UniProtKB/TrEMBL annotation:
Signal peptide: none
Protein source organism: Streptomyces dangxiongensis
Protein name according to UniProt: Arsenate reductase family protein
Lineage: Bacteria, Bacillati, Actinomycetota, Actinomycetes, Kitasatosporales
Pfam families cross-referenced by the UniProt entry: ArsC
Family classification: Belongs to the ArsC family.
SUPFAM superfamilies found in the cross-reference section: Thioredoxin-like
Residue intervals passing through the bilayer: none
InterPro entries per record: Arsenate_reductase-like, Thioredoxin-like_sf
Length: 123
């Protein structure tokens, strides 16, 4: 499995600690440095079963600058959201675990991290 993190994020650090405690096999992606492109974001959204606005950190300063709070949340606007996430990765909710079973999840809670570990061990 892979976990997308921002090392400055306490939830990311907690998730890594839990993965280590569970002896999970994972790789770390510092997505602010290794920025996912639009196609990769689309693929992760499909794995998550979510829309781009569902994983957007709308309280970030750049979100305020872009006026994201006023953007439509519909199919016609989906591309605009994905472009914003690719151009401003700080907007991406974290951490995200892409599990070996082809799914992904936003791992902001201990339960979600454990679910990611479970999905990784089922294969």
């Amino acid at each position: 499995m892979e976990i997308w993190i921002n090392p400055a994020c306490s939830k990311c650090r907690s998730a890594l600690s839990l993965l280590d405690a569970e002896k999970a096999d994972y790789t770390v992606r510092r997505y602010l440095e290794d920025v996912p492109g639009e196609d990769e974001i689309r693929a992760v959204l499909e794995r998550l079963g979510l829309e781009p606005w569902d994983i957007t950190r709308t309280q970030e300063a750049v979100a305020q600058e872009l006026g994201i709070g006023d953007w439509a949340r519909d199919e016609a606007s989906r591309g605009r959201w994905i472009t914003a996430l690719a151009e401003h990765p700080r907007l991406i909710q974290r951490p995200i675990i892409t599990a070996d079973d082809g799914t992904a999840l936003v791992a902001r809670t201990e339960e979600a991290v454990r679910e990611g570990v479970s999905r990784g061990r089922e294969n």
